[in-house]
């Protein structure tokens, strides 16, 4: 469902936007060239280019449409996951579902000691700083 920005647009802008996004959303939609889209929307190809490249309202409305479609896909994906979890007892599907809801998080613990050798850089000249930087690089690379 298009959002508020889309609703405020003129008809030819809406038409051009729908024709452009239709090709993203529907894999079975006919592949139209920019010239064909412009013709069907009743605008010039140059105008379509300006909207696509320089028009924030056009970009925002396009984003709204694509996000709305993505929301529909997510709902379908959750239904498929629900089926996999409940009917097939699919543990991986359960994991994906829980992770997507932030209820399951992969954690890695890192143990170690952090040593910080601080030098007052305000009192060093450029060459001394470069030498210290090279020494740190060697330490990091394990030399």
From TrEMBL:
Organism superkingdom: Bacteria
InterPro entries per the UniProt record, alphabetical: Homeodomain-like_sf (IPR009057), Homeodomain_phBC6A51-type (IPR024978)
Record-annotated Homeodomain phBC6A51-type domain positions: 11-117
This protein's UniProt keywords: Plasmid
Pfam families registered for this protein in UniProt: HTH_Tnp_1_2 (PF13022)
Statement: the UniProt record of this protein carries the keyword Membrane: no
Protein name: Homeodomain phBC6A51-type domain-containing protein
UniProt organism field: Paenibacillus hexagrammi
């Amino acid at each position: 469902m298009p959002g508020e920005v889309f609703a405020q647009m003129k008809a030819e802008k809406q038409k051009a936007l729908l024709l452009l996004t239709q090709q993203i959303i529907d894999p079975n939609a006919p592949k139209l060239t920019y010239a064909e889209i412009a013709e069907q929307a009743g605008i010039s190809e140059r105008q379509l280019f300006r909207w696509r490249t320089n028009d924030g309202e056009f970009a925002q409305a396009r984003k709204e449409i694509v996000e709305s479609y993505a929301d529909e896909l997510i709902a379908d994906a959750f239904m498929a996951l629900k089926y996999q979890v409940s009917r097939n007892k699919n543990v991986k599907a359960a994991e994906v579902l829980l992770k997507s809801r932030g209820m399951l998080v992969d954690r890695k613990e890192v143990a170690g000691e952090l040593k910080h050798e601080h030098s007052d850089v305000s009192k060093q000249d450029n060459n001394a700083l470069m030498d210290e930087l090279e020494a740190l690089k060697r330490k990091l690379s394990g030399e």
